[in-house]
């Protein structure tokens, strides 16, 4: 969610019971503008909080002029001092899939891969590295996975210019109430996967400036999003069931929207049994 | 229009065809080979000499205007008004490069005609859901006039309304909780609940999220004598069904006297009776609603079978209390029962209080049965917050744990079978075979430091709400076994709450229970074991042997006869 609209946004996602304490809120209001200044970001988003056993990681993302470019991520343990995280690599993503369980809360903690998956450990040893995975790498990979899988925005909020870069749509007035109740009005804010598989007939209806992302309609498994109208129908809240803790909110007919993650950072692999 | 030469009377024609415009519009300049070449020059028009009378001209203008005002049969619009609207719009908005977008402007003006008619139809249904919900929430704010009189005559049984806002404030220090508006609505909804139901104590238990709707749960203790009606009807219901089954059993026996398949000797294990209201898992009664302002529904008491089954399945709540739970093993009940079972498990696993806050009523009895009651310790001194954060021994469970059987107090299920008068002998044999071990759970008021962790994750995580201002910080406890269960303690105050999806955490993925192994059909004995049929030679040999035996017997008889 936008750092500037943090207080109002936190009120809207508090339906799940997770939020930030006044101390953290105050710290964020102070430190995020400084992060924006220091790293020269155009926008700073507060991504959320991953709860570890002994501590929590607070994550922020910074965006440059092209909103669809890979985002820079920062983490903090106390919402005051932020450290930049390196971009995620494929190896990190592959290793993170193997490591299961809670985050510990200590960024330098090392997961012993030999216990978890001896093959991966063997590969690493061959490559000359130790068969461990640092929690920081796991954090990077988890954030990337969550963003790719369930980071969503409403349709029409972002436009793609003919040059390829993506900007916020200044003429976005919000989804209407009817549109807001449909899953097809929300897009994954990541590189599209299914777009090219659409039939020509469907593509004819699309507007290439706004429909350049995958919609939520065809997410597998069906029903992995829980949509509710809260606060008497004024806020549409979408909660992901695949990554429990990701909450997206949008106030129809206004420009307010955003998503935030408050959770343990574990994928819900039991989802098909639970539906 | 075309009978007047363009060059002669330019101002009189609405759509002037001046030579320059003709060029701009693409009709000119006419090339030498095209018909009409030179006609736009003065003096070359064939009808130049004929200047019409002024009256005829006026008539022509009126005809033209009448033609423009003719309404279209298809759409009901006329050209005159349409042009007037277009020109009004263009002059109002003054867009750049109007001539390039004139067709679009025309289309927009026509479209605007349609929108007006449908506006009144569209507005109403969109707004009503919001307004309905707002009406319901507004109803919460109405203060009943009867309250003032009742408040004066305070009796002993005055129900205590929990201070939801105070607990919300402390939890907010840890970043847990709903937003203030929702907490206040819940506060008012609890107040309504107390006014309607005969409640002794009440507490906001927490919120469980569902797919379509959420549940807000209140934990109450009803006043004595109020909850017993339901229990009686439940027992009566069971009695009638048992009698009904016996009748149908007898009728079945009468009908099938001819060829009865072997009756199975399987007797299902007797159902474990649920704990009586007011004790164990049914100590509290729970009311749920889908949102503040919606009506409160009482959840039925929980049975051990439901708890045992709930441990084996993992399902999301949909938000509808009467939704069926489709699962394996099949859950005995609908979503209301599953919700109640999960609430019981969460309460038993995560409700804690500072050690020493509660003490046993009578310290002499150390048996489990006597340890069901506890009371507040008047001499409790709260330890400092730093100590509460560091050591888990400062917290203790004040709800009894649930045994594997599904109850808090173990009961021997075989005792119940005394009611059946048939086949006592077999039952005695079964008792010897299946001696169930009496289960003992941890006694009440155990410290939570004795809770086992999973793999390398401790069962509880503690933190102080703030490290910057330690003198006002609050000790926060988070459960790792039930993510979403929190407790806080500050000074002498403490509270438990749950915000989550209602499932237990397990490091391994959920695996559904396997179906039971296929049962044996019937015991195998010599009459049904297969043997190879005797061959013809064997049969002949057998026949010969039999005949020889007969012949020998006859000879012996003959001999005996001869002797006589």
Counting structural domains of chain A, the number is 3
Strand order in the sheet with the most strands of chain A:
4-3-2-1-14-13-12-11
Low-confidence stretches of chain B: 4-24, 145-157, 229-256, 364-371, 416-435
- Termini Cα gap of chain A: 28 Å
Shape of chain A: globular
Helix-strand makeup class of chain A:
alpha+beta
The total count of helices of chain A amounts to 9
- Residue-averaged pLDDT of chain A, rounded? 87
Q: What's the gyration radius of chain B in Å? A: 45 Å
Q: Helicity level of chain B, as a percent range?
A: 25-40%
Structural class of chain B: alpha+beta
Task: Give a quick account of the main beta sheet of chain A: strands, pairing sense, barrel closure.
Answer: 8 strands, mixed
Low-confidence stretches of chain A are: none
Radius of gyration of chain A: 19 Å
Strand tally of chain A is: 14
Largest interface: A-B, 42 and 50 residues
What share of the residues of chain A does DSSP label as strand, in percent?
15-25%
The main sheet of chain B comes to: 8 strands, mixed
Subcellular location (chain A): Cell projection, Kinocilium; Cytoplasm, Cytoskeleton, Flagellum axoneme
Family (chain A): Belongs to the flagellar radial spoke RSP9 family.
Keywords (chain A): Cell projection, Cilium, Cilium biogenesis/degradation, Cytoplasm, Cytoskeleton, Flagellum
Protein name (chain A): Radial spoke head protein 9 homolog
């Amino acid at each position: 969610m936008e750092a500037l609209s943090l207080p109002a946004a936190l009120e809207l996602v508090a339906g799940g019971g997770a939020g930030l304490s006044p101390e953290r809120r105050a710290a964020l209001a102070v430190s995020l503008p400084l992060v924006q200044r220091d790293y020269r970001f155009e926008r700073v988003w507060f991504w959320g909080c991953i709860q570890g056993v002994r501590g929590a990681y607070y994550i922020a993302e910074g965006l440059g002029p092209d909103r669809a470019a890979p985002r820079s991520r920062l983490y903090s343990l106390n919402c005051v001092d932020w450290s930049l995280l390196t971009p995620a690599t494929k190896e990190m993503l592959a290793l993170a899939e193997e490591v299961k369980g809670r985050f510990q809360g200590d960024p330098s903690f090392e997961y012993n891969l030999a216990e978890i998956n001896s093959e991966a450990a063997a590969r690493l040893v061959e490559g000359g590295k130790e068969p461990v995975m640092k929690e920081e790498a796991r954090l990077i990979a988890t954030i990337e996975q969550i963003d790719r899988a369930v980071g969503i925005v409403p349709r029409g909020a972002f436009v793609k210019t003919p040059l390829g870069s993506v900007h916020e749509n200044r003429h976005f007035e919000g989804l209407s109430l009817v549109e807001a109740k449909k899953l097809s009005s929300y897009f994954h804010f990541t590189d599209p996967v299914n777009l090219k598989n659409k039939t020509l007939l469907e593509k004819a209806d699309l507007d290439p400036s706004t429909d350049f992302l995958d919609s939520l309609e065809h997410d597998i498994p069906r029903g992995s999003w829980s949509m509710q109208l809260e606060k008497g129908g004024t806020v549409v809240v979408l909660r992901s069931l695949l990554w429990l803790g990701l909450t997206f909110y949008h106030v129809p007919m206004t420009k307010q929207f955003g998503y935030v993650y408050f959770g343990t950072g574990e994928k819900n692999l039991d989802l098909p049994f639970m539906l | 229009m075309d009978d007047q030469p363009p060059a002669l009377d330019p101002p009189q024609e609405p759509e002037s065809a001046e030579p320059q415009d003709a060029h701009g519009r693409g009709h000119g300049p006419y090339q030498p080979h095209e018909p009409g070449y030179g006609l736009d020059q003065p003096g070359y028009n064939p009808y130049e000499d004929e200047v019409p009378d002024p009256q005829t001209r006026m008539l022509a203008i009126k005809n033209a205007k009448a033609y423009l005002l003719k309404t279209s049969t298809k759409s009901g619009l006329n050209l005159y008004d349409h042009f007037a609207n277009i020109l009004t719009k263009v002059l109002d908005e003054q867009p750049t490069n109007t001539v390039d977008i004139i067709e679009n402007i025309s289309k927009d003006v026509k479209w605007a005609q349609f929108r007006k008619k449908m506006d009144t139809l569209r507005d109403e249904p969109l707004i009503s859901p919001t307004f309905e919900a707002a009406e319901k929430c507004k109803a919460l704010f109405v203060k009943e006039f009867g309250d003032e009189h009742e408040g004066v005559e305070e009796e002993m049984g005055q129900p205590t309304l929990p201070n939801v806002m105070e607990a919300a404030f402390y939890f907010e220090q840890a970043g847990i909780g709903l937003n203030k508006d929702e907490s206040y609505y819940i506060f008012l909804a609890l107040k309504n609940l107390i006014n309607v139901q005969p409640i002794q104590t009440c507490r906001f238990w927490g919120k469980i999220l569902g797919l379509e709707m959420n549940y807000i749960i209140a934990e109450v203790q009803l006043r004595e004598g109020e909850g017993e009606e339901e229990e009686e009807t439940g027992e009566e219901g069971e009695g009638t069904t048992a009698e009904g089954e016996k009748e149908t059993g007898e009728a079945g026996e009468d009908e099938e006297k001819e060829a009865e398949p072997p009756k199975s000797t399987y007797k299902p294990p007797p159902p474990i009776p649920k704990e009586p209201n007011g004790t164990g898992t049914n100590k509290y009664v729970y009311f749920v609603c889908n949102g503040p302002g919606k009506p409160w529904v009482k959840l039925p008491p929980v049975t051990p079978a439901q708890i045992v089954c709930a441990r084996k399945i993992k399902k999301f709540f949909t938000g509808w209390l009467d939704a069926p739970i489709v699962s394996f093993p099949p859950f005995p009940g609908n979503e209301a029962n599953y919700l109640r079972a999960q609430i019981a498990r969460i309460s038993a696993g995560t409700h804690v209080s500072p050690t020493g806050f509660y003490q046993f009523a009578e310290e002499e009895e150390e048996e489990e049965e006597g340890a069901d009651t506890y009371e507040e310790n008047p001499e409790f001194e709260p330890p400092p917050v730093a100590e509460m954060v560091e050591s888990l021994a400062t917290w203790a469970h004040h709800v009894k744990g649930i045994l594997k059987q599904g109850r808090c107090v173990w009961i021997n299920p075989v005792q119940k079978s005394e009611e059946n008068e048939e086949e006592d002998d077999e039952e005695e044999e079964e008792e010897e075979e299946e001696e169930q071990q009496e289960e003992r759970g941890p006694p009440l008021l155990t410290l939570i430091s004795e809770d086992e962790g999973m793999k390398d994750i401790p069962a509880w995580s503690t933190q102080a709400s703030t490290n910057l201002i330690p003198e006002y910080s609050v000790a926060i406890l988070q459960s790792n076994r039930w993510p979403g269960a929190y407790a806080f303690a500050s000074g002498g105050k403490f509270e438990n709450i749950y915000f989550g999806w209602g499932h237990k955490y397990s490091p391994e993925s959920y695996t559904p229970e396997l179906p039971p192994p296929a049962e044996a059909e019937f015991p195998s004995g010599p009459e049904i074991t297969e043997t190879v049929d005797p061959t013809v030679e064997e049969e002949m040999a057998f026949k010969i042997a039999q005949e020889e035996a007969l012949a020998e017997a006859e000879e012996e008889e003959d001999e005996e006869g001869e002797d006589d």
